[in-house]
Amino acid sequence: MISDPHTRVLKKLGVMPTGLPEYSTATLSDGLQKIGVKNRVLEPAIRPFLPFTKMAGTAVTVKLGAASGDGSSYVGLLADAYKAGKQVTAPVLVLEHPVGLQGTTVVGSGMTHVLRDLYGFVGCVVEGAIRDSDEIKRMNFPVYCRSVHPEYIWGMLKGISFNEPVIVGGVEVSSGDIIVGDNDGVVAIPPHHLPKVLEAANEVLEQERVLLAAIDQDGYTVEVIKRFQPEALPDVE
Hints:
Blueprint: H1 7-12, H2 25-34, E1 47-48, E2 55-66, H3 75-84, E3 91-96, H4 109-118, E4 123-127, E5 129-130, H5 133-139, E6 143-145, E7 147-148, E8 157-162, E9 166-168, E10 171-173, E11 178-182, E12 185-189, H6 194-218, H7 222-228
Parallel strand pairs: 2-3, 3-4, 4-6, 5-7
Antiparallel strand pairs: 1-6, 2-8, 2-11, 9-10, 11-12
């Protein structure tokens, strides 16, 4: 695996080897809010195909569009994306393609085999459906998607861009963004924000620890909440 400045952080986020992750997407979302970074949490329709799995890594982006009948393909674009995964820590394929276009279920057992076993991808986020769900479950490969659908029809899609920004789950994701997914959903963190997000997330975790200890001791009261979590009661004097 390529060593880069994100490797140690990604280990802490739960990529490798295994074990309880230090940060949940909920905590990271709170951290993003705390530093004023908005629209980095994907829509709730993007769900883990395998419940209660964890994924964290570096985005490699691909955008697909509806084919115009000119024989265009997306195979070369995906090949470029697979190769790019070799250059980053814990690559995650983030794939935009037309939602609602029946017969465009690209992500299946073949792609997940290539992603995981040949190029070292740790997961995939797709704006649309997946298929071959039995095989993906057997492989235990983390995939986040809108739905599951069996159909794929050749010639319906073409490649648009690779390693350019894509829109998935209502969020613009760029190559190099840090992608974290768990059973709550997916967050996409621009790498230049990551240190401050983690600092803020640590503050959130410590605040929660102190708050819960106070509730255990004194009970759940307005006074306790006001003392340890004043932002929850902005209008209470």
